[in-house]
Amino acid sequence: MSSMSVNENARMAAVLGLDLLDTEPDAEFDSIVQAASALCDMPMCLIALLDEHRYWFKAAIGMSGMTEVAKEISFCKLSIDCQGLLQIPDCTQDVRSADNPLVLGAPGLRFYAGIALSLSDGTRVGTLCILDTKPGALSDMQKQVLTHLAQAASYALESRRVALTQIASESTFRTLCAVSPLGIFSTDIHGFCTYTNERFQALFGLSEHESLGSGWRQAVHPDDRNQGFAAWDSGIGSRVEVVRDFRVCHMDGRVLTVTGTLRPVFTADNKLISFVGSVEDITERRNHQAQMERSLTFMRQTGALAGVGGWELNLSTSQAFWSDQTCIIHGVDTEYQPDIQAGLDFFLPEARDILVNALQALTADGDTLDEELRLRRADGRIIWVRVRGEAVLREGEVVRLRGAIQDIDNEVRQRIALKNAHDRISIATQSGDIGVWEWDVESGHIDWTPQMYKLYGVEPDATSLSLDWWSQLIHPDDQQVAEIMLSGLMEGEGDLDTEFRVVRPDGSVRHLRSCAHIRRDVNGRALTLLGVNWDVTSLRQLSMELAEQHELLHVTLQSIEDAVITADTAGLIVWLNPAAELLTGWGCGDALGKPLEDIYKVCDEQSGLPLKNPVTECLVRDQPLNCGRDAVLLARDGSRFGIEESAAPIRDSQGQLFGVVLIFRDVTEQRRLRAEMNFRATHDELTQIFNRSEFESRLRKTLNSLRDNTEPCHALMFIDLDEFKLVNDACGHPVGDHLLRQIAGLLGQTLRAEDTLARLGGDEFGVILNNCSVTHAQQIAQQICHRMDDFRFAHGIRRFRVGASIGLVPLNDRWASPASIMQAADTSCYAAKEAGRNRVHLWLESDQNMRNRRGDMQWAARLEQSLDENRFELYAQKLVSLTDDCVGLSAEVLIRLSSEGGRVILPGAFLPAAERFHLATRIDRWVLQKSIQTLAELPSLKDVRRLWINLSGQSVGDREFHRDAIEMLTQAGSEICECICLEITETAVVININDAADFILSLRALNVKTALDDFGAGASSFSYLRNLPVDALKIDGQFIGNLVENPLNAAAVRCFVDVAEVVGLRTVAEYVQTPEALAYVKELGVDFAQGFLMHEPEPIGQLLRRSLGAQSESNEVGGALV
What totals of helices (H) and strands (E) does the chain contain, helices first? Predict the structure, then answer.
């Protein structure tokens, strides 16, 4: 609809509301028309009101009886929408009116002027018009007059509308008052009632006359008059609205509570003309409100007790209402009222999804909501709540959702805990094979879980449960006991806890444990039994096994040699086994309950000081304790036992400590043997003084101590006996041993108690003089020389003079190692010998003699470097068989040194230095290892008979070398061992007869042959053949060199061959240089010959490749050494 149509409709409604159309003429409007016609000097004038199809003339002059004009040709439609006065001077000349019938026809209008008539709300309802049949124009004065007259006409129209409105309002007011449930009244400006309706009169119990003026005040409750009237009068005086609740005493005795409202009425110019008001009976509402408040309080209190709150959700506004308890459940202020999203955000994500879906279903289908969900309170605590809800419908549509929320956190957690407990019990009963049963004593009804049937080995369907039936399953030996137990249980107090055996239908016997709780009435009579059964057969078997093990353990502990004491956590003795009783001297009965310290007393073996109680220390540490100390047990009778001890905590199955076990054993004999072994390891067997190993160890410690004390306050003596070999050769090895023991005693008497004396080997001794200046050391060394000079060794009728050459070396931080010191001391000793023997030579850096010996020392360093760099080479010289029983190659292994320039150095250049500086054993070890490796690398050993390998005297007397050699040969295997013969010089055997004999026996066990080298060089060579299980003799070269020219040598060789033949040994002639000598030794019966005549030494690999490839050279292969 257009805006023009809207205006027309509003105008039509306003015109109809004036109730003027088609009414009689009105003088007021007629006078306005007349005045306008006269003042504007126009013959025609009219007031036209708009109608649906016309403009009707309320007043008109000069219109020749016309009372209306059609809307479509009326000039009024032009002026009614015009702002201000509309003037058309000549209608025939204006396009808006030139073709108008009123212009072209009667009345022939030529001039028109009009202005709209408006009501107070601006609605235009008509026009004031002047017209003429001739052209014209209005002056300004006329226009102003016409405008004022239009305003007067408009005011007249407005006045009529107001009057009509007032009449309608008064009528409406009277009608409303008659039908209103409220008491209606009006007053004058002073507050005196001028009108009351019937409801007012009924409420106050007054007639109309009694209610007017101030009469109504007499019905107001006396207690409410003062404050009520004061407020009423105040409102009248200040001309403001007053609302007041007060009580009315009705004439029939009732007391009503009413709400009175008084409002001032003003004119348009704000002039007070009256007051109007109403009185409403709120007695029932107040009573209902009080009841509601009481109900609300009750609901709030019960809701708080039950943890239930209310909620409502307005779907149109998405606003939620929460009750106080709902706010409390959420942990927010009771004033908090969230929107729907804020309310949902309290719930955990998974709960929120469930709630949203439920609310959507509730909204769509009008279904009910009932969910248990988790929400996070404002304080962060997560609780379980139950949310219930329903839809509120209006005209079939859901407009609101309302419901309740309840804090069920405790209930849910209890339910979960109960379920978990039930699950645990279920798991326990299932996994633990526990059967649950219940017996109603009064009815005799018995109920079993499935597990019970399994325990008894019966099927549920084939079983009728009864007490008699159950009794029949009890083992016959247990039935009477079970019946007595049940009978006593029915009559007495307490619960059931017993064990019995059952015999299953398949004949198997099982041990069952039964526990039950008995529910009794007030008189103590048993009503029901609820209990469990479980199979303890394995436990009974285990108990029997444990009893057997306990008995076995008891018997074992009673019989073992180790002593055992157990104590409790307070350290009080609980038990001793017989071994402990024997060692401590205390019987188990006497020791029981006594503190361990009173029974077990131990002290240190060396100091004798008491030692800590191991049990106490074990309890403090709470862990096993292996004492590892040299303890001595002091027995009750004063006996002393060397013991080894350990203690350990004893724990129960839960790991709780309940005691300690102490185990100790008598190691007195072991310690004695250990001390003896330690003594043997550190002392020389012959002289009972320290050996070389211990000497070097102490020397190393002394050197280490010099790092903190650089002052030379220690000294070392190297002592070599003079003329000892003469005694040994002349009188034999046992006599030489006796001499060495006497010399050791003499040296010990001369030295101080803090000095270290050791036999370094053969006739060599070493001394470490601790905290001794060089001057004092020289005095001690010189005193030794004096005593040796005075000493005479007697053997039979023979007397020998033996001296001592001493090398003295100050110990300071210049020495890098014990080896360098020993080299210096050995050099000084050698210098003493060269200076005349039985004297002392002090080592000095600038000493000429030292410089003379420096070459040997340089050799020593060079040899050590060569060993590290593997610069030695193996050569070999063949042994030629002089008999016909030979198969395979035999050759003596020789050693050469390769210089940096590639020159081959013979052993005569470096072996003396190796012997002097104790490197010979390392060289022997290298030669043996390389020889074994050479044999192992051969494709076959069938053409190799024997490799003869020399050992130095130092190696023969070195037990560590013995162990290494035996280990290498054992690892090489029996085939290689059968191809090796080790040569030992007669001199080395004489010095180390016992070690040599043991070594030869160990070699023989591996099928390794041994030969006595340089045989005949000693004075007592034949005596060793009885004690040494050698396989061959190598005759000293001094007898072979001039064998042909010297009959004595020939006789000696013949003697050697005869003796060897008697004892079953093979013989080898060394240094055969001439054909005559070769023929002679063959004639004498020697088995093998060796020398440059037959073969010059060559690299062993070259010899093996050449010899093993020439099978025809059988005459050059050695015979069997058997």
Answer: 39, 46
Q: Which helix (H) or strand (E) holds 915?
A: helix 911-916
Residue 820: closest CA among 780, 848, 854, 770:
854
CA distance 263 to 273: 11
What whole-number distance in Å separates Cα of residue 1077 and Cα of residue 1090?
A: 11
Report pLDDT for 937: 93
Tokens of 456: 């008894």
Could you give all domains of the chain from N- to C-terminal order, each with its CATH number? 3-166 (3.30.450.40), 180-283 (3.30.450.20), 315-430 (3.30.450.20), 432-541 (3.30.450.20), 560-672 (3.30.450.20), 683-845 (3.30.70.270), 867-1116 (3.20.20.450)
pLDDT digits (tens, 9 = 90+) for 359-390: 888 888 777 889 999 999 999 999 999 999 88
Closest CA to 108 of 134, 136, 139: 134
| Residue indicated by tokens 């690299």 | 1099
Smallest Cα–Cα separation from 1070: which of 1025, 1027, 1107, 1040? 1040
Contacts of 44 (CB under 8 A, 6+ apart): 37, 60, 61, 62, 63, 107, 130, 131, 132
Q: Is 575 helix (H, G, I), strand (E, B) or coil?
A: strand
Measured CA to CA, the distance from residue 865 to residue 566 in angstroms comes to 62
| DSSP secondary structure, 974-1020, as one string | HHHHTTEEEEEEHHHHHHTHHHHHHHHHHHHHTT-EEEEEEETSSTT
* Torsion (CA) 128, 134, 137, 143 in degrees, nearest 10: -20
For residue 54, list its beta bridge partners.
70
What strand order describes the sheet that includes 756-761? Answer: 756-761, 764-769, 714-722, 803-811, 840-842
Number of neighbouring beta carbons within 10 Å of residue 942: 11
With vertex at residue 174, the alpha carbon angle to CA 168 and CA 176, rounded to the nearest 5 degrees, is 95
Beta bridge partners of 242: 262
Q: Residue 725 gets which letter from DSSP?
A: H
Residue 879 — left, alpha, or beta (φ > 0 → left; ψ -120 to 50 → alpha)?
Answer: beta
Q: What is the pTM of this model?
A: 0.35
Per-residue pLDDT tens over the stretch 510-543? 999 888 888 888 888 888 888 889 888 888 887 7
Which long-range contacts link 80-85 to residues 24+ away (Cβ below 8 Å)?
80/11, 80/50, 80/116, 80/124, 80/126, 80/127, 81/116, 81/124, 82/114, 82/115, 82/116, 84/115, 84/147, 85/113, 85/114, 85/115, 85/138, 85/143, 85/146, 85/147
Catalogue the E-assigned strands of 524-588.
526-535, 563-567, 573-576
Of the ranges 150-154, 626-630, 649-653, the best mean pLDDT one = 150-154
DSSP symbols for 943-964: TEEEEEEEE-HHHHT-HHHHHH
Say which amino acid occupies 558: Q
How many other β-carbons are positioned within 10 Å of the β-carbon of residue 1027?
Answer: 13
| Residue that is written with structure tokens 């009890």 in the block | 474
Model confidence over 117-140: pLDDT tens digits?
998 888 899 999 999 999 999 998
Tell me whether strands 980-985 and 944-951 are parallel, antiparallel or unpaired: parallel
Question: Mean pLDDT throughout 707-722?
Answer: 81
Which bin fits 809, alpha (ψ -120 to 50), beta or left (φ > 0)? beta
Which residues neighbour 383 within 8 Å (Cβ) at sequence distance 6 or greater? 329, 374, 375, 377, 407, 409
Helix 848-869 vs helix 920-936: angle between axes, to the nearest 10 degrees? 20
Q: Which residue has the tokens 């409420």?
A: 203
- Cα Rg of the chain, angstroms: 71
Residues facing 407 on adjacent strands: 385
Unique residue bearing structure tokens 């350290």: 571
- 474: which DSSP letter? B
